């Protein structure tokens, strides 16, 4: 005996649903697990090794190291995946540049995350974050 989903979708909606299902099954776990990055806030010369992960309610990026920092995702204005030009094809993700407006401020700030020693976990996290941003961008109303 098997369950048949009674929801009918057009082919376009079916493709979107399949991508969302793939994201929730695979990428969300990676984002919740986090990755280790060298983090630079703003134009500061000081950086810190931190674990970056998505909060359990999916509303914040938590950065934990010697200090704790949070970015509310609704305050993010741009996200850019940085690539390593020395990698084959120059397309391996090496970091992320995030612009956001802190609570109570209208001035945008910048957050730079670069892969640390644990490159594999950080690279997987960056790939998942890129897929999340792409999924959100594609789901916007035209």
TrEMBL record:
<protein>
    <submittedName>
        <fullName>Zinc finger, FYVE domain containing 21</fullName>
    </submittedName>
</protein>
<dbReference type="InterPro" id="IPR038632">
    <property type="entry name" value="ZFYVE21_C_sf"/>
</dbReference>
<dbReference type="InterPro" id="IPR052113">
    <property type="entry name" value="FYVE-type_Zinc_Finger"/>
</dbReference>
<feature type="domain" description="Zinc finger FYVE">
    <location>
        <begin position="23"/>
        <end position="141"/>
    </location>
</feature>
<dbReference type="InterPro" id="IPR032031">
    <property type="entry name" value="ZFYVE21_C"/>
</dbReference>
<dbReference type="Pfam" id="PF16696">
    <property type="entry name" value="ZFYVE21_C"/>
</dbReference>
